[in-house]
C-alpha cells in the first residue's frame, strides 16, 4: 500500500498582494461583493435580534449555522488546549478554514469524523459556499477604518502528482487557494519556499512554521492558510496614563505589569461571577471581548464553564454603558502547537492513520493521510490597538481618564482572564486565548 502525506499550514497575520494585476482583480471582486455582503449583514442583524425566528434567506441561515459551528469548534478546541500551562492564543477561524479545505477532499468515515469535529451539519456544496461568504466578510474592513484583516490560502502540490480537478476547483473557487507545484524531494528548498510565503503573508510575525524534517519524500500536498489582523482601538488608551501596577498571577503571587487605563463608553456585562468588556476596533466591525472572573483565582472555573451555550448567554447580558473605568494590561504572547493528537481526541481519528484515512476526493485513491498539524499564533496588545498573527501546519501526508464618575463600573483586569477577537457582523470568533502572565 502506498501512503502519501499532506501538510496543512495555518497562518494568521498580515498579508499583502505582491502582484498589481492580482491586486486589481481582488479589488474589483471586493467592490462587486460589497453591496451583496452589506445586504447579508443587515439580514444577519435582523436574525440575531430575533434568534427565535427563522432567517428569510438560505444564505443567512447557512452563514449563521456555519458561524455557530465554527464557534462551537473554537470552544471545543479551547477546552483541549487549556491544559497547556501559561498564556494561550490561537486562531480557530484559521484552523477551521484549513480543515474545511481538507474536508473538501475527504470521503467515507474520514469525511464524517471531520464534519463532526468541525460541527458541520450541512451538505458540502452549501458549506463551501458559506465559507466563501464568511471569508468575503473578513476581507471587507478597510485599513482607513482602523482595521486591517487579510486572508490567504494556498495549495502546494508535488510536481507531476495529479489531484482531481473537482477538488482543485472547490479550493480555488471557494477558498481562493491556487495550486503551486514544488519538488518535495528537495525537502529543504520546499520547506524554505513555503515558510517564506508564510513570513511574507504575516509580515514576518510567523517564522519557521514548518520545522526541519517535516517535509519528506512522502509529502504530496501542503495546504496553507494565512490571516493577519491589525486593529486600532476605536478609543485609544493614552500612553502617559499607563503605569506599573500589581498583576495577580494567583491569590498570593503578584508581579508588576504595565496597566493601561481609560474611562469611556463601552459595552459591558456582569453575570455568573464574571465581568465582560467589549473593546471595539476602528469602525466597530471587530472587537476584543474580555471575560474576567471576579475572583483573582477564578480562571479555572471560568474556563470550565466556557461552553457555546454559556458564551451566548453571557454575551446576551452585555449592554451599553455610558462610562466604564477600564484597567487593562499591555501584553504580547505567542503559542505553538502540534495538534494532531488534539484533533484525534476531538474525533478526527482516521485522518491521521495511513491505513484508514480516506482523502479519495483529492486524488481518486485512498493514498493520502494527515501526518501533522502545526499551529503558531502571535498577539500584541498596546495603547494603540492589537496586532495578531497565527499559523497552522497540518501535515496530512501559523484615552485618557479625564473624569472618573463614582457610579461607573470598574473593569480591572489585574488577574488572569480569557479574551477573544470577534467579527461583530457575523459573530464569528477569529482569535481566542487567555492571559495568565502579561509579561510572558
Write a concise synopsis of the structure shown:
This protein is of the alpha+beta class. It has eleven helices and 16 strands. Helix 2 crosses helix 5 and helix 5 runs parallel beside helix 6.
Shape: globular
Number of helices: 11
Spans of 5+ residues with little confidence (pLDDT < 50)? Answer: 11-20, 398-403
Output mean pLDDT: 86
* CATH H level, superfamily name of the largest domain: Antithrombin, subunit I, domain 2
Tell me the span between the first and last alpha carbons: 47 Å
Taken as a percent bin, the fraction of beta residues is 25-35%
Annotated CATH topology of the largest domain: Antithrombin, Chain I, domain 2
Q: What's the total count of β strands? A: 16
- Secondary-structure element series: EHHEHHHEHEHEEEEEHHEEHHEEEEE
Radius of gyration equals 22 Å
Sheet/helix structural class: alpha+beta
| Helix amount | 25-40%
The CATH architecture name of the largest domain reads 2-Layer Sandwich
Number of domains: 2
Explained architecture:
The chain is an alpha+beta fold and 440 residues long. The chain folds into two domains: 56-232 and 333-380, Antithrombin, subunit I, domain 2 (Antithrombin, Chain I, domain 2, 2-Layer Sandwich), CATH 3.30.497.10; 239-330 and 406-435, Roll (Alpha-1-antitrypsin, domain 1), CATH 2.30.39. Helices cover 32% and strands 34% of the residues. The protein has eleven helices and 16 strands. Strands 2, 6, 7, 8, 9, 10, 14, 15 and 16 form a nine-stranded mixed β-sheet that branches. β12 and β13 form a beta hairpin. α2 crosses α5 and α5 runs parallel beside α6. It is globular and about 70 Å long. The model is unreliable at 11-20 and 398-403 (pLDDT under 50).
